[in-house]
Design a protein that fits this description.
Elements: E1 3-7, H1 11-23, E2 27-31, H2 34-43, E3 48-52, H3 60-70, E4 75-80, H4 85-93, E5 98-101, H5 106-136, E6 138-139, E7 142-143, H6 147-159, E8 166-169, H7 176-185, E9 194-198, H8 204-212, E10 213-214, E11 226-227, H9 229-232, E12 237-241, H10 248-260, E13 262-263, E14 272-273, E15 277-282, H11 286-292, H12 297-303, E16 306-309, H13 320-334, E17 341-342, H14 344-352, H15 358-372, E18 377-378, H16 390-393, H17 408-426, H18 431-438, H19 442-453
Length: 454
């Protein structure tokens, strides 16, 4: 039962609202003015407050401000006989949910109250969810605390338990399959099959039989009936990775499954009905493929009901230390080593790398480093980081100076760090050789490394 506070110095209006709300099943508390209302708010927690705007001494805006300070999650609706555009804007700026004139329609008020309370519930659920995610720094098998990843977690939570088709986009190596798995595991289908198929990794002549199955005798080698992956995924989820690689003739068959939930095995005469949640993924620009005629427009819009984009690792640098720690722990166990962490300078080198291969590339780097390391900490000399590709090679010097300006010392430090990194790589981790390559003394290089580590 939602708790509602009614604030109005007009006794008739106050009593009218109280009777109306009690009949609707709400628990109602009344205050005859702003001062009394503020006292009640300090003692009790309300889900929603309905307050008059014009009241002596403490008016509705003051009540609104104080409520939002004491209990930000409480929804507030303002009511007044003297409506104006300015007061409405002021109320909304202070966090009011809505603003009604006193000649309101009762049904409109009921609808606004119901909507406000439902929004409050959603906000509270999201706040708890995001707090849990931020505390744990992960969601499902995904790891990260960056704004980009928190947005991904939030969207996964919202869409997981729907039947809606989802298209996951992102560069290669960003973890699209992990996102699809998180959607499945947070849905009501979690106890059913999660079936993965790479549309670009299976020869075209075999892909149809993998997806839809076949009947005995339908082609040479078909010695028995075989169920396809759509049948296996019945009541569960099918993840179609690299959907942009799907041949045109199979796009037609997939469209039928999406629209009618039916298909036929190769050589079959009967329709097979399935209940499958379809999640697709691509690192290609499907919109452009549609324009070029390489992908069916009707299928694209059927699959892309809810788009979910995963940011590349270079746009979420703050996730690199978390991911590095996770992979160090993973491969230390696998290789039976006691490696606990990565040295500050080695981590600095990772932070400066653009990661064209994204999380997959970071995992490969850490796996190699754990395999090579003989101490209990990953040192720079065992961190095998590939040379940047052509367009990224000069990133340190491609610095834009915005209208707000830049921090010259910070930018120079970044350039210095990249040059030291390259020298250490060329010298296979030898600081003496790296110092010679940079034409500085060993002590000077050591001092610069210490600066980078702090």
């Amino acid at each position: 039962m939602a708790k509602i506070l009614v604030v109005d110095d007009d006794q008739g209006m106050r009593e009218f609202l109280e009777i109306l709300l009690v009949r609707e099943g709400y628990e109602v508390t009344s205050a005859s003015g702003g001062k009394e209302a503020l006292g009640l708010c300090k003692k009790h927690k309300f889900d929603l407050a309905i307050t008059d705007l014009k009241m002596p001494k403490v008016d509705g805006i003051d009540v609104l401000k104080t409520i939002k300070e004491i209990s930000p999650e409480t929804m507030v609706i303002l009511i007044t006989a003297y409506a104006s555009g300015e007061t409405a804007v002021a109320a909304m700026k202070e966090g009011a949910y809505d603003y009604l004139e006193k000649n309101f329609d009762v049904e409109d008020l009921k609808a606004v109250i119901k909507d406000a309370l439902s929004k409050k519930d959603i906000k509270e659920e999201d706040a708890v969810f995001m707090k849990d995610v931020e505390d744990g720094l992960s969601f499902g098998n995904m790891i990260g605390k960056s704004k980009g990843m928190l947005k991904v977690y939030s969207l996964v939570k919202k869409v997981a338990d729907t039947a809606t088709n989802i298209l996951i986009t992102g560069e290669s190596g960003t973890g699209k399959e992990l996102v699809a798995m998180a959607i499945h595991e947070n849905s009501s289908r979690k106890d059913k099959s999660f079936v993965v198929i790479n549309c670009g990794g299976i020869p075209e002549n075999l892909l149809e039989s993998e997806l839809f199955g076949y009947m005995k005798g339908s082609f040479t080698g078909a010695t028995s009936d075989k169920a396809g992956l759509f049948e296996i995924a019945h009541n569960g989820t099918i993840f179609l990775d690299e959907i942009g690689e799907l041949p045109t003739f199979l796009q037609v068959k997939l469209l039928r499954v999406v629209q009618e939930k039916t298909f036929r095995r190769i050589g079959g005469a009967e329709d097979i009905k399935v209940d499958v949640r379809i999640i697709s993924a691509t690192n290609q620009n499907l919109e452009q493929q549609v324009k070029n005629g390489g992908f069916r427009e009707d299928l694209y819009y059927r699959l892309n009901v809810i788009p979910l984009e995963i940011p590349p690792l270079r746009e979420r640098n703050e996730d690199i230390p978390l991911l590095a720690s996770y992979f160090i722990e993973k491969y230390s166990k696998e290789f039976k080593k006691e490696i606990k962490k990565i040295s500050p300078y080695a981590l600095q080198l990772l932070m400066q790398h653009p990661f064209p291969g994204n999380v997959r590339e970071l995992e490969n780097i850490i796996e190699r480093s754990v395999a090579l390391e003989t101490t209990n900490i990953i040192m720079p000399e065992n961190l095998v980081i590939p040379e940047d590709s052509g367009q990224n090679r000069d990133n340190a010097l491609n610095i834009d100076i915005s209208e707000e300006g830049i921090n010259l010392n910070e930018e120079l430090a970044k350039v210095e760090g990249l040059l030291i990194k390259k020298a250490l790589q060329k010298a296979n981790g030898s600081k003496t050789k790296a110092a010679k390559l940079l034409n500085v003394s060993f002590d000077s290089l050591r001092y610069r490394l210490e600066k980078l580590d702090t």
